[in-house]
Amino acid sequence: MKWDWSAVGDFMPKFWDGVFVTLQALALSVIVAFVLGLVWALAQRSPLKVVRWPVTVITEFIRNTPLLVQLFFLYFVLPEWGLTLSALTTGVIGLGLHYSTYTAEVYRAGIDGVPAGQWEAATALSLPRARTWFSVILPQAIRRVVPALGNYVIAMLKDSPLISTIGVLEMLGEAKQFGSITFQMVEPLFVVGIAFIVIAYPASLLLRALERRLVR
C-alpha cells in the first residue's frame, strides 16, 4: 500500500473542524451525563415509590438498549412526533442520556460509601434534609467517585464516533466524508485513530494521578 501524504495534508483542515465538533459534543454530553446522572441517583433514593420506580424503569431501559438505537430513535422518530432537533443536539442528548444511567450508578455507590456516622451527625445537628444532602453527603460522595466518572468521560469520547451516523461531522464523520469524495480512506482514518489515542491516553494518565491523590 502506498501512503499518500498529500491526502493527509488535504484532510487536515477538515480534521481540525472535526476535532472541534468532537470536543464540543463531548463537553456538552459530559455535562448532561453528570447532571442527569445525579438526578437519577437522588430520585432512586426517594422514599416515594411513585418517583423511585419510574426512574428505575427508565434508567434500566436506557442502560440495556444500544446507544446507536437510541440515537436513531431521537433523530428519526421524534420528528414524526413533532419534535425535530439538529444532528449535534441529538448526538449530545443521546450520548449524555445514555451515559447518565451509568453515572447514576457511580453516584449511588459513592453515596452508599459515605459512613453512616455522617448521616447520624447531620441528624443530631437537626440539619434540614436538603442541607444534609448538599453540604454533607454529596461533597463526600462525589469526591470518592471522581476517578470513576472520569473513566466514563473517556468511554464517551470513544463512543462519540457513533454520532456521525446521524450526520454529525465530528472526526470520523469528516474522515468518512473526505474518503467518499477522494476515495482515500486509509489516510484520514489513520489520522483520526491517532487523534483518539493522543486525546484518550493522556486523559487516562491524568485520571490515574487524580485517583492516587484522592485516595491518600
UniProtKB/TrEMBL annotation:
Keyword list, A-Z: Amino-acid transport, Cell membrane, Membrane, Transmembrane, Transmembrane helix, Transport
Transmembrane spans: 20-43, 189-210
UniProt domain ABC transmembrane type-1: residue ranges: 19-207
Topology of the protein relative to the lipid bilayer: Multi-pass membrane protein
Location(s), subcellular: Cell membrane
CDD domains in the cross-refs: TM_PBP2 (cd06261)
One Pfam assignment: BPD_transp_1
Top-rank taxon, per record: Bacteria
Family matches, as NCBIfam families: ectoine_ehuD, HEQRo_perm_3TM
Similarity annotation: Belongs to the binding-protein-dependent transport system permease family.
Protein name in the entry: Ectoine/hydroxyectoine ABC transporter permease subunit EhuD
Annotated organism of origin: Streptomyces monticola
